Amino acid sequence: MVIPQSPPQPPSRSSRPGTSGSRRRASAAVRRPGAPESPVRRRHAGPTVPGAAPAPPGPMRLPEASARRTTGAYVTATALITLIVLGTAGAFENMLHFLDFGAGVMALVCLTATVMWGLAATDRVLLHPGHRLLAQAVHRGLGITGLCFLVLHIGVKILEDRVSVHAAAIPFSDPLQPLLMGLGTVAAYLFVLVAVVGAARGVFAGRNRSRRWRGLHMLAYPAWALALVHGLYAGRPAAGWVTAMYMGCLLLAALALTTRLANRSRRHAR
After folding, report:
1. Residue 63 DSSP label
2. In contact, 204 and 213? CB cutoff 8 Å
3. What distance in Å separates the CA atoms of residue 134 and residue 75, rounded to the nearest whole number?
4. Is pLDDT of 28 > 50?
5. No. of H helices and E strands in the chain?
6. φ, ψ for residue 190 (rounded to 5)?
7. Residues 184-213, buried b or exposed e (16+ Cβ, 10 A)?
8. What are the CA-CA distances from residue 106 to residues 16, 34, 249 (Å)?
9. 68 neighbors 56 (Cβ within 8 angstroms)
10. Three-state DSSP state, 200
11. CA nearest 204: which of 214, 194, 195?
């Protein structure tokens, strides 16, 4: 007796060679141009809200190597400008005379420019992120130059016996000009503190510590005001246009600070 055999069945889709699950997933991942997106891909891509505005682009940041080169370039430019100013003022012809009277002036000029560039670096209306980064580089370079001139100014005054070490170190202890010399000493201490806090900014990471850093860094403004009073009245009388220039910078800084604090209070009120 012959038993009839059923005809051979075609191989199933899963058993065909070359059609494994991974290959099917790989082929599904490649879509033809203009083809609709897979529901699976849409599900993993996250929900989309009709009419929602696209996410704003993130802040523009320069590469770390580019930022270092930019800072180095501006520090070099600051040093070159300083050398040009020194040569124009005759510092290299009569070095001792310049150090006696010019080092303090250069310290005040550089620290004034540091404060103004620091204010410019916080502007978010006119400056783009890249511009603010450049302003911060100039701010740091001028701050370092101003501190160097400040140390040179104090050292020369002590070496020439125009002020004692005791009077230079302890505020309001000078027998001739206790108030003016004391203001200069307090300003110097505040500037050194601000420089140390600025160099150690990474230690103040975090929201609460960041507020402390801003509070300590803003001590540069009263230090600058005290240095202005000391520089304009403790030494030789300044020319009228010099006093007017410093007063203009002081008013501009006060206006910028008032505007910043007002904007910050409005944001907190919202």
Report:
1. -
2. yes
3. 11
4. no
5. 10, 0
6. -65, -40
7. bbbbbebbeebbebbeeeeebeeeeeeeeb
8. 85, 67, 16
9. no
10. coil
11. 214
pTM: 0.64
Distance CA 136, CA 185 (A): 27
Q: Express the helix, strand and coil content of the chain in percent, nearest 5 each.
A: 70, 0, 30
The pLDDT mean for the chain works out to: 75
Distance, CA of 80 to CA of 42 (rounded, Å): 58
- Sequence-ordered list of residues with C-beta below 8 angstroms from that of 101, at least 6 positions apart, any chain: 235, 236
Band (pLDDT 50/70/90 cuts) for residue 71 is: low
Find the mean pLDDT for residues 116-136: 82
Task: Give the Cβ contact number of residue 137 at 10 Å.
Answer: 23
Helical ranges in 90-128 per DSSP H: 95-121
DSSP 60-90: P---HHHHHHHHHHHHHHHHHHHHHHHHHTT
Residue 213 to residue 118: CA distance in whole angstroms: 15
Look up tokens 């601000």; give the residue.
194
| Closest C-alpha among 144, 140, 105 to residue 120 | 140
Record the tokens describing residue 119, joined without a space: 């204010």
Helix (H, G, I), strand (E, B) or coil at 125: coil
Core vs surface per residue 33-51: b (16+ CB within 10 A) or e: eeeeeeeeeeeeeeeeeee
Please count the residues of the chain.
Answer: 270
